[in-house]
Amino acid sequence: MCVLLSGVLIYTLIQVSTIHGEDFGYDGVIGPKYWGETYRECRGKHQSPININILRVKQVALPDIVFIGFDDPIDDVHVTNNGHTVLIEVENEPHPRVSGGPLDGNYVFSQMHFHWGDNDTLGSEDKINHRSFPMELHMVFYKEVYKSVKEAVKHPDGLTVLAFFYELDRHNHPAYDDITSALTNVTDPHSTVVMSQPFSFLNILPLDLRRYFTYKGSLTTPPCSEVVIWLDFEQPVRLAHEQIEIFRELRSANGKIRHNFRPIQPIGDRTVFYNVDNNYFTYNEIDDPDTEKTKPKQKKSGHNSGGNIQLNMIYLFSVLPILVKNHY
Ligand SMILES: *[C@@H]1O[C@H](CO)[C@@H](O)[C@H](O)[C@H]1NC(C)=O
Ligand SMILES: *[C@@H]1O[C@H](CO)[C@@H](O)[C@H](O)[C@H]1NC(C)=O
Ligand SMILES: [Zn+2]
């Protein structure tokens, strides 16, 4: 009896230490399916990532996003393998900031990290029309009034994550060479290196920062807190296959991190908004009393830059009657 009990006890201790030692992973008993057993919020109704169905998005024309400090070269940037991903952190103040768009107030940069897959057919967390991208960048910011990430995660508007997708290119993206050479020095879990060159955020981003999807969701890793205003930029960053391969060489305590993306979660009662550029032509704005009440405000503004054909078609249909009206 005693032997049996102590056996159970030892077994329980091993179980607990596996969960707490590794805390979470992407396969087996510490994989995404089991996160909810230890972290209740991972079973919530407003989780991330999601699939964005572009036929269901609501078009909006939000104020411009203001990027502060994104084009400054930053010294002493730390690159860390935390056993789940690679983190890029800024030591020196002031940190880059972001405001505008759907955001109320200033958000301060905390860290950025990446999600990737075993091969180039998958790896992104959010999907667009069920399309996966080989990698995704998350730039995490906390709301300035909350003063720290620790405090911010207690509030529904505590964090914003700027998400960028990657797609393949035949050529190396030169701005990523500094990151990939740092990666070769942090293949072991819990190792850090200081970047040898000053690092500028803008250099690693796509050109078009005006078109993005936005919705309310969660952290995509435990504790899965539902405190994130997501901004998913439509234009991907183009990287060479060889550059993405270097991420797949990073190791956790259990071997190479071959993939670190969470599967998509139900969208539930949420709406995804699609921001189109409000600076092209805004000549046919409608005064619709109904749209005044809803926030973010929906503006019917003309725009066709040859981006997404399906969306531009929808858009054309919604504008056509106004064009006709204006003609007569
Ligand atoms: C890519 O990886 C996934 C997951 O391991 C696998 O199911 C799929 O067959 C792979 N695709 C290719 C083209 O290797
Ligand atoms: C990392 O290692 C490479 C050699 O593999 C070296 O050239 C580089 O300067 C190192 N440090 C950083 C921060 O990239
Ligand atoms: Zn992430």
Automatic annotation (TrEMBL):
Query: What Gene Ontology molecular function terms does this protein carry?
Result: carbonate dehydratase activity; zinc ion binding
**The enzyme's E.C. designation:** 4.2.1.1
| Entry keyword set | Glycoprotein, Metal-binding, Zinc
Q: Which residues form the Alpha-carbonic anhydrase domain?
A: 22-276
PROSITE patterns on file: ALPHA_CA_2
Q: Which GO terms describe its cellular component?
A: cytoplasm
Family from the record: Belongs to the alpha-carbonic anhydrase family.
**Protein name as annotated:** carbonic anhydrase
Q: Which organism is it from?
A: Danaus plexippus plexippus
Native organism taxonomy: Eukaryota, Metazoa, Ecdysozoa, Arthropoda, Hexapoda
